[in-house]
Structure formats: structure tokens, C-alpha cells
Fold this protein.
Amino acid sequence: MSSLARLATWLGGLVFCVSAAAADIDVASYGYPLANPFEATIVTTPPELRPTLPDDRDIDQSDYSVRLRPDRQFELLDNFWPVTRMHYRLAEQKGKAPLIFIISGTGASYSSTTTEYLKKLFYGAGYHVVQLSSPTSYDFMASASRSATPGYSPDDADDLYRAMQAVRAQHPNLQVSDFMLTGYSLGALHAAFVSHLDETRRAFNFKRVLLLNPPVNLYTSISNLDKLVQTRVQGIDNSTNFYELVLSKLTRYFNDKGGFDINEAMLYDFQRSKEHLTDEQMAMLIGTSFRFSAADIVFTSDLLNRRGLITPRDYHINEGTSLTPFFQAALRCDFDCYITEQLVPMWRARYDGGSLNQLVHDTSLYALEDYLKSSDKVAVMHNADDLILGKGDIGFLRRTFGDRLTLYPRGGHCGNLNYRVNSDAMLEFFRG
């Protein structure tokens, strides 16, 4: 794995290293209560420690759509017709205000829970907010991606940039003072590449860019999450039994509570109960969720490109077609499989690409090291116990961002984004 990390790429650029130290937050002063990274990832922050956010009824927001790929209008199969146009959400302030774009994480739509949380946080602080789906979501792949084969970060950023320009053009009367950019998880990696792209195209001239829990080496992060699916859970020999175990625990929990309501507050309370999940069970739950996201990408990319790997090229799909057998086949193809069978062939054909090591480097933060070292407007907030980080990743962040890195001791993967301390720090960064 160290060869994939391409650690040698930073050796030639030591002259550009910043001298300031990263802002490391110690556990005692931080106050985030969940020490278990698996639990933090799943249940996030206890409700009483979250910031006060505006209610949806108090937000002037609407969903919009824009046609980015008119050539696909007649190419898409029947079951993809609703996403021939890219959909997004815009929340508007009254009068002139800064506008912040939010890029969602792996497989997530513009209306996902975390993106909605960030929208409310920034809107409440006086920003116009545009919510964008991840380039790895099926709707973005169908409506906005040129290759419908996400995973090569420069291409994903280019697709996002064109989408952002189309959004801005659709609202010419929106009064914007400055443009800001953020993203979480994979969306944070995309935000870094979009910011770099904007340095030459200058459509937005982003004033500030915040990367929330980004993968440093994308291949390492994918491998970490894929391994969670292989976690050995006592008494479990297949995924069906695992889901039955989780369901039985939830059933007993709700019977004791006398009601049924699944939300983050419930999950926190559930983990305090006698039915709580073990570390192994939580790890498998996180890994399984990621595997479903990967299957979506595998299936959609194959179908849109008519590759015939999952769905036969001449097989006609309509609204009445059962997709279950195809999705089951996609589940058997993990991210390594997707990279080998779909991403690498596309990349080599389009860019005359070479080795897997080269692809891994070009899709990760390593490829932007010189830019990120020299760009004062780009900052990172990350967690020392994040599940997606690998050996050497935190060291890279320290060398590259210096005092523009805030490293929290706890929070797992994005579990503390809705903690008051984190939300205050985000707003403070964008205020400058």
C-alpha cells in the first residue's frame, strides 16, 4: 500500500512547506463525548450538543433542474428518464450575500441528511446555499457526467464545475458578494480539485474553500471501507443473517420504547441501550452501507455506457423490469472490481493512462500538493480517528496545510460535523 501512496511526490516540494503547526485539538478541551469511531460515524452527535438551526419553513428554498447533457435525453433507458436533467437545491437570502456550494459525499444526492444539515448551518449564518449531488450518485452520473464513470477526480471536478456554472447562469438575478466552496467526505476531495480548476477558469474566484474529512489517498480510503464488509461477526456467516440480527435488536428496542421512529437521536439512544451494536457489528454496518453505494456506481456506470458487464448490452430495461438480479451482480463487484473493469479501461482509453499507481496518485490529494501548500484560502478539518485515513495520511495533511489543518481527536468519519464546536469553527473559517 505504501507504493500506492506515492509518498515520494512530496519530497521534491519541501521548499514550499509551511512552517506553522496544525491546530491539534486535545480530547479534554474538545468535549465531544463519543470515543468509539464506529459509533461516532453512525450516530453522530448527541442532540443536546448540536447547534440551533433554522427550520425548513424559515428557509427560502426551492429545487431546480438544468439540462447539461441534451445528447442523453434520448439515450437514457426508460427507468432513468427522471434524471435526464440535473437537479439541485438553492436556498436564497434576501438581498446580496455570499454563496456557498456544498458537494455531497459518496453516492449522496443533493438532499442527503449531511448536505441538508450544512445547508441549514450556512443559511442561518446568512449565506445563499447551493446543494449539489455527488458525481458518484446515479442522478449526477446520468444527467451531468460526460463519462458516467466516476472515480477520476479531475474529470469529476470538471463535471461539477460545468454544473456549478450552469446553476449560476440559471439565476442571473441572484445577488452574490463572494463565492465559497465546501464538501464532506469524497465531496471534500472533489472540492479541492474544483478549487484548483477555478484558479485557471476563474468563473467563481472562490474566496474560501473548506474540506471536511476528505480522503487523502482515495484508494486507501476505499480499501479501508471495503475491508469493513469482511469483518467477522460472531454467529454471522452471511449478510442476510447480519441484517436479521440488526433488525431483531431494533425490534426489541422499539418494543421497550413503545414506539417506532428511526433518526439520529434514536440511534444515539439505541447505542446506550442493552441492544447496542458491538464494534464488529457497527463496522460491518458501515462497510455494508458503503458496498451498496459502490454497487450503485457499478450498475449505473455499466448500464449508461452499455459495457455489458452487469446488464447485457442488448437487454431492454423499462419501468416494469426487476433490477434485483442486476443489483445482486453489482454487489459482488467491489470497488477494486469497479476500478479494474470500468474506471481503468476508461481512463487509459481517454487519457492514454498507465499504471494503477499513476491513477491512484492523480485522483488523490497528492496530485494537488503544491497547489494546496501555496493556497491560503483552502483549509481542512479532519478527525484523528477517521476510518478512511491510512498510514501517513495525517502526516501529509500536516506538511501540506500547516495551520490550515484543524485535527480533532474524535468523531470517526464525519460523525462530529453536527457538533457545536465544529459548526462554530466552520462558520468562523468562512467569516475569515
Remarks:
- Residues 347 and 353 are 6 Å apart (CA to CA).
- The radius of gyration is 21 Å.
